[in-house]
């Protein structure tokens, strides 16, 4: 009779399912915008109930759709969520973050020129926060390492009328 694996060394089924999900599912590529006001504060939005990571604060944006350029996804998401038209933006920082149940590639762009006044079109609470207060703003885990990049461009944002 063939040897059967020892049950005690097999990973529990829930762990196996989670592992399979992480291995098989490609990371979601998420475009997000760093939008500064004239006081050098940056705009963040709270994830609504029922969505992944509900209650956490994030930079406005969403997933890249098939066939879309990154700038197009950013423009579409910020139009849908905030009602603003992005005229120019630059990639600021991009990396992959692993949550327990999914992976995201968070691609944060500095919005250098836009028109319109950001408003919450999807019911998400919004707030303008000084970059130095972002640490205690309840940002999602993937977003926290982005704070130093924002500190580097904060001075630029203050001296630049958008
Ligand atoms: N928009 C945004 N999403 C973020 C940030 N940080 C972070 O971990 N995420 C995660 C949360 C979600 O798992 C994923 C974004 O998904 P989403 O649900 O907002 O995307 P979407 O607007 O395209 O929405 P949907 O079509 O899935 O409803 O990325 C961030 O700063 N901004």
TrEMBL record:
It catalyses: 8-oxo-dGTP + H2O = 8-oxo-dGMP + diphosphate + H(+); 8-oxo-GTP + H2O = 8-oxo-GMP + diphosphate + H(+). Signal peptide: none annotated. It is an enzyme of class 3 (hydrolase). One of its GO terms (biological process) is DNA repair. Keywords: DNA damage, DNA repair, DNA replication, Hydrolase, Magnesium, Metal-binding, Mutator protein. Its EC number is 3.6.1.55. Residues 26-154 form the Nudix hydrolase domain. Gene3D superfamilies: Nucleoside Triphosphate Pyrophosphohydrolase (3.90.79.10). 8-oxo-dGTP binds at residues 47, 52, 58-61. InterPro entries: Mutator_MutT, MutT-like, MutY_C, Nudix_hydrolase, NUDIX_hydrolase-like_dom_sf, NUDIX_hydrolase_CS, NUDIX_hydrolase_dom. One of its GO terms (molecular function) is metal ion binding. Pfam families: NUDIX_4 (PF14815). Mg(2+) binds at residues 61, 81. It comes from the Bacteria. Its cofactor is Mg(2+). PANTHER family: 8-OXO-DGTP DIPHOSPHATASE (PTHR47707), NUDIX HYDROLASE FAMILY PROTEIN (PTHR47707:SF1). Belongs to the Nudix hydrolase family. This is 8-oxo-dGTP diphosphatase. It comes from Povalibacter uvarum. The lineage of its organism: Bacteria, Pseudomonadati, Pseudomonadota, Gammaproteobacteria, Steroidobacterales.
